[in-house]
From TrEMBL:
One of its GO terms (biological process) is gamma-aminobutyric acid catabolic process. This is NAD-dependent succinate-semialdehyde dehydrogenase. Residues 21-480 form the Aldehyde dehydrogenase domain. Transmembrane segments: none annotated. The keyword Glycosyltransferase does not apply. Pfam families: Aldedh. The keyword Oxidoreductase applies. The active site is at E258. Keywords: Oxidoreductase. Belongs to the aldehyde dehydrogenase family. One of its GO terms (molecular function) is succinate-semialdehyde dehydrogenase (NAD+) activity.
Length: 486
């Protein structure tokens, strides 16, 4: 469509290094495709390892001046970027739908959610403080202050092209750190557009550098081993996170890791079933199920399991599947063929072990990479679907007999990002908060993400927190000074 081409023409196609948009030094390019049609949307620069080091050079060169820039001024760049993003809301939403596939209404929701990190951290920039005290012996004064950690490298995934970028860029800039960001090769256009927004609001050159590449590993290696780099923040899969942590260890980097999840969604016999179904649909089908916070395992009390599954199946049967730009579409394409194959393998494995498909259960035969929204019930212990992130529109239902069993099943995973639980019993809710091994919880809520809240996991779901008061501390290091009494 004409409006799509016009928008794509406004997206930069180069690398953003030291305030200039430049081609890759090798001339290499990479094609970005629409997963709903498999058509090429735009061809952009694909950085070499040398380009990555040039981007780091720029971040290092800008570091001292940015750290010394008054916090209010740093915050105002973020605030201006937020305001401009809100003016361009429909453009950014369309861009995300084109490169990632999510329905346009959800993309618009991500502009608001992702934009909030810019506003939240514009306000946090001026609240970085320390403390001054007398030591217990009374022999001296202690001063505790905060300094920016230094140049940062960010690697982000394709599922939330805007929010995953702003969630890292905003706190880093607020804290006084400079940045090199490498978005996922599948959805780099939104990050390039964010670079353009910061350019338009006059962010000084070199504070934010962007490299896009189809060789993430080769480009990231030299950056991670460069002693000038001080921080790595990664969002993506646990295996890649583990490999990056090993590389970061050689350089003793500060790290923040937002890795995989395997969220349980508990429905107790005393739950408000209307609310549980509504929450389940949000927790499962938001972003076509392609979220680390997506409900992965529905664990439902045996007395309400049939009614819950029936109601979910009815709702799913009403979902419109299509390109995210089309009116009324709830389920867009998955990101690529591999994502479709993975979802299908998990469903087929569950069925082989005895589960029943209530609806869906197969790829959709049409251009693009679509998987039918699916409900499988009676999923038995040991099925692969209970161990692996589905990352697709598949509801998997297992039953439990009592609260102890529910908690045991919920915690039976190496992941610990988020758990959802629906119950009207307040005491039970409080027990669950204490007993579920996760960094986050939705208690009678199917949505948890918010810029003001500390997002993050325990166990193999990651390290550190993004958002909230905690978010900026990922980019600050504490300095303590001892002085004699005055
Ligand atoms: P997903 O499964 O969501 O695609 P990945 O962990 O594979 O998640 O990818 C997340 C990000 O990590 C992307 O930007 C990708 O380019 C990058 N990436 C993947 N593998 C590596 C690697 N070995 N080294 C550095 N970056 C990587």
């Amino acid at each position: 469509a004409a409006d799509e081409s016009a928008l794509l023409a406004t997206v930069p196609d180069g690398l953003l290094i030291a305030g200039r948009w430049v081609p890759a030094s090798s001339g290499a390019t990479l094609d970005v495709r629409d997963p709903a049609t498999n058509q090429v949307l735009k061809t952009i620069a694909s950085a070499t390892p040398e380009d990555g080091i040039l981007a780091l050079d720029a971040a290092v060169a800008a570091a001292d001046e940015w750290a010394a820039t008054p916090p209010r001024v740093r915050g105002e760049y973020l605030r201006s970027a937020f305001d401009l993003l809100m003016e361009r809301k429909s453009d950014v939403a369309l861009l995300m739908t084109l490169e990632m596939g999510k329905p346009l209404a959800e993309a618009a929701g991500e502009v608001v959610y992702g934009g909030e990190f810019l506003r939240w951290f514009s306000e946090e920039a001026v609240r970085i403080t320390g403390r001054y005290g007398i030591n217990p012996e009374g022999t001296g004064r202690t001063i505790v202050s905060q300094r920016p950690v230094g140049p940062c490298y960010f690697i982000t995934p394709w599922n939330f092209p805007l929010a995953m970028a702003t969630r890292k860029i905003a706190p880093a800039l607020a804290a006084g750190c400079t940045v090199v960001i490498k978005p996922a090769e599948l959805t780099p256009l939104t990050t390039l557009y964010v670079g353009k927004l910061f350019e338009e609001v006059g962010l000084p050159s070199g504070v934010l550098n962007i490299i896009t590449t189809h060789q993430s590993k080769a480009v990231s290696g030299p950056i991670l081993s460069d002693p000038r780099l001080r921080k790595l923040s990664f969002t993506g899969s646990t295996p890649v996170g583990i490999s990056l942590l090993k590389q970061a260890a050689d350089n003793v980097l500060r790290t923040s890791m937002e890795l995989g999840g395997n969220a349980p969604f508990l429905v107790f016999e005393d739950a408000d079933l209307d609310k549980a179904v509504e929450g389940a649909l949000l927790a499962k089908f938001r972003n076509i199920g392609e979220a680390c916070t997506a409900a992965n395992r529905f664990l439902v009390h045996e007395s309400v399991a049939e009614e819950f599954s029936t109601r979910i199946t009815e709702a799913v049967n009403g979902f419109v599947v299509g390109r995210g730009t089309e009116e009324g579409v709830r389920i867009g394409p998955l990101i690529n063929e591999a994502a479709v194959a993975k979802a299908d393998e998990l469903v087929q494995d569950a069925v082989r072990r005895g589960a029943t498909v209530q609806t869906g259960g197969a790829p959709i035969d049409r251009p693009g990479t679509f998987y039918a929204p699916t409900v499988v019930t009676g999923v038995v212990a040991g099925s692969d679907i209970l161990r692996n992130e589905i990352f697709g529109p598949v509801v998997s239902v297992t039953t439990f007999a009592d609260e102890d069993e529910a908690i045991r099943l919920a915690n039976d995973t190496e992941y610990g990002l988020v758990a959802y639980a629906f119950t009207k019993d307040l005491a039970r809710g409080q027990r669950l908060i204490e007993k579920l091994d996760t960094g986050m919880m939705g208690l009678n809520s199917g949505v948890i993400s918010n810029a003001s809240a500390p997002f993050g996991g325990v166990k193999q779901s990651g390290l550190g927190r993004e958002g909230g008061f905690e978010g900026i501390h990922e980019y600050l290091s504490t300095k303590y000074t001892m002085t004699p009494n005055p």
